[in-house]
Amino acid sequence: MSQPMIILYDVPSNIPQPWAPNIWRVRLILNFKRLPYRTTWVEFPDIEETLRGIGAPPTSVRNDGRPVFSLPVIVDPIRSPQAPIVLSNASHIAEYLEITYPGQYNFLSANLISEQFAARQVFPEGSRALQALFVHYIQEIFAKPLLPIMVPLSHQRLPERSQTHFLSGTTPSYLSVPPEREQAWRAVQEQFDFLANILDKNSGTDGDGVVAMGHELTYADFAIVSVLIWIEKVAPHDGWVRIRQWNGGRWGKLWERCKSCMDVF
């Protein structure tokens, strides 16, 4: 009997490592909490059929009432192998993992022995609301200037079948690389500068000046680092080379701080 493992659904690419930031937020938590998991790769044309097949909830609803299915999704059989939990939406998954595996947890090993493991917290007591607001800011404001640059580059990193999924005769405008690249990067830098000034308030007696909550890694850091990983994987020469040097190298330091959580299983 094998050990029950969480299944994380992700999109494949034509580069060695995955890049999707919302999915990395979940993967970072799974690694940080040392939870057993494996990745199942699903190409974009197959996402809806696959997720309907496992009973995953839709992440949103179109104006005409049709459900929208997107990744990340996890299937967790650890507590109940016969009735595994199926969840979508990165923030919902993050809160579920924290509630279900906040500290010590038990699972049945391959030799049918109950083993206990320690899962580190990503939501320190009393921080869940503020971290949820912070992650919303990362998604809706901080990362927005990156989209004109990163979306076309991310599309190029998809397998051919997934690339074709987004094309219908002509290339959509959002898949065209902006002609004024340096101007686009300056808009990105403005957001990084603003966030760096905020995080600098955690320097000195209030923290190490690297992580969002002062001293320990939390979900807020994983929200930032998932964006950094996206840039590092998809735009290593045009993007990551410059960003890791911005703001006194703080983004490179944060990336290094989270490096031990970047395994892909």
TrEMBL record:
Cleavable signal peptide: none
Span of domain Glutathione S-transferase UstS-like C-terminal: 129-259
CDD domains: GST_C_family
Domain GST N-terminal: 21-98
InterPro entries in the record: Glutathione-S-Trfase_C_sf, Glutathione_S-Trfase_N, GST_UstS-like_C
Pfam families noted in UniProt: GST_C_7 (PF22041), GST_N_2 (PF13409)
Annotated protein name in UniProt: GST N-terminal domain-containing protein
Organism whose genome encodes this protein: Suillus plorans
